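Morning. Coffee machine broken again, so started the prediction first thing and wrote up yesterday's gels while waiting. Chain of 209 residues, entered below exactly as on the submission form.
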Amino acid sequence: MKAIAAGALAAVLALPAPCLAHRLDEYLQVTRIALARDRIDIEIDATPGALMAGDIMSWLDLDADGHISPREAEAYGQAVLRDAQLDLDGVPLLLTLTRVEVPSVGEMRDGVGTIQIRAAGQIAPIAAGRRSVVFVNNHHPEGSVYLANALVSADPGIDVVAQTRDVRQRQIRVDYEVRKAGGSALAWSLVAAGMLTTLVVFRSRGGRQ
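Came back before lunch.
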């Protein structure tokens, strides 16, 4: 049992620092990128540690009334997006805020409240081929810790090929492959048609015998 416990402890200690605990004096900003043929969705979950809650509250609670209104939450979401940059194949994309959810004041003061910011970059439907997306988060770098990752696309015709990040993970580059729309369905249709033809021929020959 001691050997098992020691091994488990060693495995935990080998994890990157952000995975072990959320430090009280850090602002953890986690970005996820979802790829589609006509849009790129950005999800940012920002969690302030308890010691930073006061600063974050001052950024959110503009009228200092102790309550974060929907308008104040939206204003903060827009501020985060102004500090971000999204490029597709080297061309900057305009990020549109789609949703902001803020935790309660008590949750933020306890260091467990997460601000959820959702945005989308609209693009013209892209042709098949290799594509590259670069996202940079420049929001309040002092005291912030960043994580960034690309999600598995809901479109089976889109495959993430590579992800490259800087040391702090403020910047992430995602290389992905886009296949022709409907290619898989067409292939399966051809296979099914071939199997059906083979079956018909086989039965015809059997009937003549």
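The beta strands are 27-35, 39-48, 84-88, 91-93, 95-101, 115-122, 129-137, 144-150, 158-165, 171-178. Going to sketch it on the whiteboard this afternoon.
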